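Is GLP placement plausible here? Inputs below.
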Amino acid sequence: MKIVSAPDYQSMSRKAANIISAQVILFPHSVLGLATGSTPLGVYNQLIEWYKKGDLDFASVRSVNLDEYCGLSPKHDQSYRFYMDENFFSHVNIPMENTNVPNGLADDVEAECRRYDSVISGLGGIDLQLLGIGHTGHIGFNEPDEDFDKMTHCVKLKQKTIEANSRFFSSMDEVPKYAVTMGIKAIMQAKKLLLVANGESKAEILYRSLFGPITPAVPASILQLHNDLTVVADDDALAVIREKCPTAIG
Ligand code: GLP
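Reply from A.M.:
I modeled the complex. Tokens:
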């Protein structure tokens, strides 16, 4: 595991974007695993800026997103498909047909999960997976106490996650209660992982995830077992790690 520190959110975003840029420059046909949430927004903005300057080309890139709310159409402004189109895809030259987000409206959710797994395997797996982390230690929408060895599946969201994500909806009732997410097993199969985190509210869970016991109670703790994990975090998010394991930060 490599932990890269950054003084602030903007710097965290630039450093993470640099890692993704290197991947795309070296391997233009890369399969990028992408994430939503507020944390990666700065990464996407930076990639867009470099694309517009002519430094990056996404024409051959393929992407798979981690997750999608059940019951939200791609046109719903809180769906993750909408988020990706608005915040990244529509600003760069990735062909829309190369982008994949689970279908939150599928009638047969189980079939959708199997379809999504076969999309990922058909692409030859994920070269670089970008991850945020939830306050419960969730990655994608893999909530605490779920099996580590699941591929794409449907999850019931924890109340804490519904509350955290309610800031994007006009009321708590509007937050979907279920989501389709790549499972931990699918995430762990990515060749490289890039976790981004910022802000003091993530400091404790980041420490528990990276240095605590590996347990389904903290889904992100499994990342300790990945052989190519890079964590890029700002100083606020690294506060507890810096205090308890000061030599861990490169
Ligand atoms: C959501 C997403 C996760 C994301 C998490 C944290 O629940 N499913 O992929 O990592 O939120 O989001 P934020 O970056 O806004 O803190």
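Short version: Residues 35-39, 66-67, 132-134, 140-141, 161, 165 surround GLP (CB under 6 Å).
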